[in-house]
Amino acid sequence: MEIHASLKAEEVFFLGSVGITNSMVMTWLAMALLVGVSWSVTRNLKVVPSGMQSLLEYALEFIFGLVIGSAGQKGRRFFPLIATIFLFIITANYMALLPGVGTISVKNPKLAHGSAHAEAPLLMAASADQDLSVGAVSAGKPEGVRAEADAADHHEPETIHIFRAANADFNMTLGMGLIAFLFIHGSGIRVHGFKGFLEELATPAFLTPVKIMIEGFVPISLSMRLFGNVFGGEMLMAVMNWPLVGIPFIGMELLFGFIQAIIFSMLTLIFTVLATTVLPGHGGHGEAHGQGGDHH
Questions:
Q1: What letter does residue 278 receive in the DSSP assignment?
Q2: Does residue 204 have a cis peptide bond before it, meaning omega lies within 30 degrees of 0?
Q3: pLDDT at 158
Q4: Residue 155: CA count within 13 A, CB half-sphere
Q5: 224 C-beta neighbours (distance < 10 Å), count
Q6: What are 6-58's pLDDT values in tens digits?
Q7: What is the pLDDT of residues 107-152, one digit of tens each?
Q8: Total-model pTM
Q9: For residue 189, which of 280, 266, 274, 285 has the smallest C-alpha distance?
């Protein structure tokens, strides 16, 4: 059994010159599911919840308890983003375990459209002799044949999976890491003010470069942890894709998918709490000694 493993998400189709990857398809499906469930539940709310409303309320109450337990009452301001991150990650992780994800394949669109070798003319221009020889050999070949030959030279697979775990794409997890990074430091600036935020970063002065490096590494740390675990799980499920044998590993992936959602969202919360904490003796632009938000 041949297993095709690619660190890079692969294009399923093209909208003009924009490639739509298999991880983007799964991201949109996860978003559509969350929006659809939210709309369905909120359009007919009941005093005594049941069914999907009960499940959604339980999930939100669980996250809310974690947020308030870690951040106190000021965590109410952070709850919307933390809950959104948690629900999206766990939904995307669990959708990646559905039948068909990583198994249903289509013909590689790069072979069909000849785009696998789109940059070849720029590379060949560096060598006129090579350009002439390649042109002479391929001049009589149909476009489809040349595209397939070019793709073979670049080790392009003949088929690609339509669906790929959304969080098995580093671009996706890095995007969420950058959102968390902006939220963390935006919240810190809101509390301390921009000048106070810089003063906190520059105190003590000799640790400023270290602090900057640590803060800059936050989105990388968040995104790499999630990407590595989900991608590793995807490869494990591909290897263990046999009847009965894969059942224990599906249970493990259900557990790990939940854990990764908790880790990403709670680390975002903890970093935000640290960024918005006002130490005794320090002024606060938006809160007095870190307590102003607890009374609203």
A1: P
A2: yes
A3: 75
A4: 3
A5: 15
A6: 677 788 888 888 888 888 999 999 999 999 999 988 888 888 887 888 888 89
A7: 777 776 554 444 444 344 444 444 434 444 444 445 544 444 444 4
A8: 0.75
A9: 285
Quickly count helices (H) and strands (E) in the chain.
10, 4
Indicate the SS3 state at residue 23: helix
Look-up of token digits 């999930």: 59
Query: What's the token pair of residue 92?
Result: 């995307």
**Other Cβ atoms within 10 Å of 159 Cβ, number:** 13
**What is the DSSP code string of 109-127?**
HHHHHT-TTTTHHHHHTT-
Enter the tokens of residue 31: 């978003």
Helices 170-201 and 22-42 meet at what angle, rounded to 10? Answer: 80
| Alpha-carbon dihedral sign for residues 90, 174, 228, 111 | positive
What is the number of alpha carbons within 13 Å of residue 288 lying toward its C-beta? Answer: 3
Please list, in sequence order, all residues whose beta carbon lies within 8 angstroms of the beta carbon of residue 240, skipping any fewer than 6 positions away: 246, 249
Q: Are 97 and 237 in contact (CB under 8 A)?
A: yes
Terminal Cα distance for the chain, rounded: 60
Q: How far is CA 279 from CA 81, 145, 266, 284, in A?
A: 25, 68, 22, 9
Nearby residues of 156 by Cβ (< 8 Å), 6 or more positions away: 108, 110, 111, 116
Q: Are the C-beta atoms of 218 and 177 separated by less than 8 Å?
A: yes
- What gap in Å lies between CA 25 and CA 34, rounded to an integer? 14
User: From the CB of residue 100, how many other CB atoms can be counted at a distance below 10 Å?
Assistant: 9
Pairing mode of beta strands 11-15, 18-21: antiparallel
Question: Pick from 188, 184, 194: which is nearest to 216 by CA?
Answer: 184
Strands 11-15 and 159-161: unpaired
d(CA 75, CA 111): 51
How far apart are the C-alpha atoms of 262 and 59, rounded to whole Å? 12
